[in-house]
């Protein structure tokens, strides 16, 4: 383990990136949900059918099917959680927000079993939100649950909504995941390569050879991300009022490009590269109109 990582663990240096969700948050979350299931604190959708046809306690099969429908894979409990992506973990957190309840029980005079006859969903959701946010805080996560949605409150990202560039967004999720797990020089270098692929993907999405290429030189190659984005910035941010924005966008792009080509990589360089890359993505999304309030179709 590097000296830099040792310092982070000892608490002498504040970590640039929180630990992966799978590291400690996920096991604690699974244990919390197990307590909810055991107590029967889920709404009647997940209650097994008693002899008289009313809802009884929690039906594990019904819950498992609902999780599979939400994620498109797995069930509950999730057997192979190591392959979960960060977004899937947060989807599960949001899913259970809509499932919790504080049911009112009664003994049926006909079948003599407990039935769910009512419940307080709002109080259950308040309790769930408080418990999840305590887990986020305890395990140094940058998230918060508000109104049933997980928000990023780290300040590292200015936007909560997806951009609409699926390949780019998957790449950013992978950067976050690998940055939290990397230990060796080769693993940090791999993050730089992944950052480069993300910037190339952004460039290929926004660049239009007819609109953004210079008349003096031909269009850049399909892998020349810096050439494509330089042309894009020059064409889309014309005029004196945009001079400062052009400088900022090009400086951020140059930083990301330089850091991606470092041969001696460590945690700090990888983290800087990741932040510069995400800044490039957000800048291009703003310039292209993807961050406007109006919705845009997915490319």
What does it look like?
The structure is a single chain. By secondary structure, the chain is mainly alpha-helical. The chain folds into two domains: 19-152, no CATH class; 166-288. The protein is built from eleven helices and six strands. The strands form three sheets. A two-stranded antiparallel ribbon has the order 1-2. A two-stranded antiparallel ribbon has the order 3-4. The radius of gyration is 24 Å and the shape is elongated.
List the topology elements.
Blueprint (H helix, E strand, L loop, with lengths): L2 H8 L14 H15 L7 E3 L5 E4 L1 H12 L14 H12 L5 E5 L6 E6 L1 H18 L4 E4 L2 E4 L13 H16 L3 H22 L2 H4 L12 H12 L6 H18 L6 H22 L11
Antiparallel strand pairs: 1-2, 3-4, 5-6
List keywords for this structure.
elongated; mainly alpha; 299 residues; disordered C terminus; disordered N terminus; 6 strands; two-stranded antiparallel sheet; 2 domains; 9% strand
In a few lines, what is going on in this structure?
This protein has 299 residues and is mainly alpha-helical. Helices cover 53% and strands 9% of the residues. The protein has helices spanning 3-10, 25-39, 60-71, 86-97, 121-138, 166-181, 185-206, 209-212, 225-236, 243-260, 267-288, and strands at residues 47-49, 55-58, 103-107, 114-119, 143-146, 149-152.
């Amino acid at each position: 383990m590097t000296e830099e990582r040792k310092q982070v663990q000892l608490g002498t240096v504040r970590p640039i990136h929180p630990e992966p969700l799978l590291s400690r948050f996920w096991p604690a979350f699974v244990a919390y949900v197990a307590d909810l299931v055991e107590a029967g604190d889920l709404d009647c959708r997940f209650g097994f059918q008693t002899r008289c046809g009313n809802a009884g306690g929690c039906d594990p099969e019904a819950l498992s099917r609902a999780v599979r429908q939400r994620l498109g894979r797995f069930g509950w409990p999730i057997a192979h959680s190591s392959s979960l992506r960060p977004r899937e973990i947060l989807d599960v957190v949001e899913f259970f927000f809509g499932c919790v309840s504080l049911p009112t029980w009664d003994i049926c005079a006909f079948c003599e079993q407990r039935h769910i006859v009512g419940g307080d969903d709002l109080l259950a959701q308040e309790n769930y939100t408080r418990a999840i946010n305590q887990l986020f805080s305890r395990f140094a996560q940058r998230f918060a649950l508000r109104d049933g949605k997980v928000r990023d409150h780290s300040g590292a990202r200015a936007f909560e909504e997806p951009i609409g560039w699926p390949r780019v967004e998957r790449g950013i999720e992978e950067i976050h995941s690998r940055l939290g797990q990397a230990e060796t020089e080769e693993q940090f270098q791999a993050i730089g390569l992944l950052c480069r692929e993300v910037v190339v993907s952004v460039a290929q999405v926004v660049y239009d050879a007819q609109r953004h290429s210079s008349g003096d030189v031909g269009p850049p190659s399909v892998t020349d991300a810096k050439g494509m984005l330089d042309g894009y910035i020059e064409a889309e941010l014309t005029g004196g009022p945009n001079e400062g924005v052009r400088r900022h966008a090009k400086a951020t792009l140059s930083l990301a490009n330089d850091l991606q080509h470092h041969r001696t990589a460590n945690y700090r360089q990888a983290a800087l590269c990741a932040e510069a890359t995400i800044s490039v993505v957000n800048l291009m999304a703003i310039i292209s109109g993807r961050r406007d309030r109006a919705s845009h179709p997915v490319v």
